[in-house]
Request: fold
Amino acid sequence: MNTPFDEEPHHRRPGMLARLRASFLTGLVVIAPVWLTVWLIWSVVGWIDSAVLPLVPHQFQPEQYVGINLRGVGVVIFLIFTVIVGWIAKGILGRSLILFAESVVDRMPVVRSIYSGIKQISETVFAQTERSFEKACLIQYPRRGIWAIGFVSTTAKGEISKRAETGGELLSVFVPTTPNPTSGFLLFFPAEDVIMLDMTIEDAAKLVISAGLVYPNEKDPTQPPE
Reply:
């Protein structure tokens, strides 16, 4: 039996296999994000090329001139075409054509549901900055004493603001779920119950997605980002 006067046993140094394993895991942490990012970009570019290049006339295919398959040409063509379509859609003629096409789609029962759903998703994902969240915040949810990160979308208006039993300003707060922040809850809080955070929307989203593992300031999570 050990006594208080016994010498503390020396810690054994990790063996060669343990050191190799630690080095391998460290290498994975460094390589995996880079490799996955490159692979994802490469795959998306290839997918766009395979969808766009078959629509380009044969005489205009880049392979006819350089002799090799240049990955990314379809992306360039897609970007140019999208910019042109967006420029036309902003004009009077473009808006008129869109309204006419949507009125035709509204008469098609199945197509109407699919189109309206995809349009709502597209408008949400590719919305301009004026429709983005205003601030990240901290609220007590689902009960007092439990804190959750939320995103302030706007000030409540209309019937919601009038019928809510609060004397002050009411804020619309989106509370995301982890690790999928695209789903969550829309809650309305009195402004005095909402604590605005200094961290950006992006940093708050990283915190939610990582389940609390990635803080804005990794050196000192209690301080705002440097």
